[in-house]
């Protein structure tokens, strides 16, 4: 996972080969769900279908074994993957799980909100995406490809002045207010997607 975070993609993929099989052999659900998470990070850009299948499996393993730490991180990665190659409604569900776990544990909210900003951008909800992205942008998330892609797209769609103004609004929101805003945007986006699918 460190190689993935350092954008050493080829090295991360090489290190991930055989990792899930080795974890499976231990019969330890923590190690298996963590290996599936690491594999997902390594292959999220080059083979997102593989990454998504692993994240889905890893989340089940983590939930069944009660490992909330791995559930939170698998949901975080799953948010972006479901939006990219899976089901956008499921992406929103994953976002709720990730935001909830990070907020409840007192962790910084930048990573799950970065993924939510990317989902909202993909759904064409540009103004809320820009607000959430403004809060989510941090030194850690500045290298998250989903967020940087969303920010560039939002600037294109909204124009620089509007996207910057909305980002500033998000950046100045208190954490609790941003979490409430994020949940509200998730509910609205889910309602719109459900109405379209009927």
How would you sum up this structure in a few lines?
With 198 residues, the protein is an all-alpha fold. It has helices at residues 2-5, 9-16, 19-26, 29-43, 48-65, 68-85, 88-105, 110-122, 126-136, 145-158, 160-171, 175-197.
Draw up the topology in text.
Layout: H1 2-5, H2 9-16, H3 19-26, H4 29-43, H5 48-65, H6 68-85, H7 88-105, H8 110-122, H9 126-136, H10 145-158, H11 160-171, H12 175-197
Helix pairs in contact: 2-4, 3-4, 4-5, 4-6, 5-6, 6-7, 6-8, 7-8, 7-12, 8-9, 8-10, 9-10, 9-11, 10-11
Structure in words:
The protein is mainly alpha-helical. It has 2 domains: 1-66, no CATH class; 88-193, no CATH class. 82% of the residues lie in helices and 0% in strands. α10 crosses α11 (160-171). The longest helix has 23 residues, at 175-197. The radius of gyration is 17 Å and the shape is globular. The model has no long low-confidence stretch (mean pLDDT 95).
Strand runs, count: 0
Overall form:
globular
H/I helix tally: 12
- Secondary-structure-based class equals mainly alpha
The arrangement of helices and strands along the chain is HHHHHHHHHHHH
Helix fraction bin: over 70%
- Biggest sheet architecture: none
Based on CA atoms alone, the radius of gyration comes out at: 17 Å
Beta-strand content bin: under 5%
List low-confidence stretches.
none
Count of the separate structural domains = 2
